Amino acid sequence: MTGRFTYENLLASAAADTRELVRVERREHSALVTLADPERLNALGAALMLQLHARLAELAADPHVRAVVLTGLDPAFCAGGDLELIERGARAVREPGPSDGTAEPWRWIRRQFGGLARLIAGSDTAFIAAVNGAAAGVGLAFALACDVVIASERAVLVPAFGRLGLLPEVGTSWLLTRRLGYHGAFAFFVSGRQVTAQEALALGLVQEVHPHEKLLAAAQEWEQRVLALPPHALEMSKLLLRAAADLPWNQALTMEEFAEPNCFSTSVLPEAAAALKARAERKRG
Description:
Blueprint: H1 7-16, E1 22-26, E2 30-35, H2 46-61, E3 67-72, E4 76-78, H3 83-94, H4 103-122, E5 126-131, E6 134-136, H5 137-145, E7 148-152, E8 156-158, H6 172-191, E9 195-196, H7 197-203, E10 208-210, H8 215-228, H9 231-244, H10 249-259, H11 268-284
Parallel strand pairs: 2-3, 3-5, 4-6, 5-7, 6-8, 7-10
Antiparallel strand pairs: 1-2, 8-9
Helix pairs in contact: 1-2, 2-4, 4-5, 9-10
């Protein structure tokens, strides 16, 4: 990239890159999204990040797509932020001359990194992270932002922020303190060590660990569980559960009470209730 280090120049340079760095395989009501820069361990350079944001935004806006699996080409899931980009941004902020100072990296961090995390968490689409290898820094943040996180036995979680002199970012401070408590999150951040898939399972950071060759098949099973739900149940439950993480118990209960009657307006509930009733009667008979 040439010219001053600005958000606009980063976008222009990224848009000019013609490589396919993010692959999308669409199915009827789902999609597999693969980070495809394996030589660089799928690091989040400007071009890959721009493509990833655009592809996920397209899928999240498509009402026919209800589940998205996010993974990386082996050997890594995502090595995190591009180190060259980080170095250039840090130098540009400190160099004399015309500059918007920290506003330039802020724009990238908020609109690209933070924007993608908000997209994953805030959309009605279910996102399933299939962590096939190392997930570091912002790559780890994106995995943890997903609704389901499963891992290959080869996966490692790498909280690389501290080693770079950075803070827990892109939502990880929120998530880690809720999963691990303050002391566990502090230790996770300060140690900076690689956490194996089995350790991550024990900590509650991933839901399942699978043999490497069976990871995508396991992700598809989660897809099918999502697709088996009535669309409104998925959409409302994701919104409800995300919001409940920040609510006191009584407020969460009240929100559930207001939300539940909407389900009575669908055709799904009486049909499902009748089917369950008939099944119970058959068993009694």
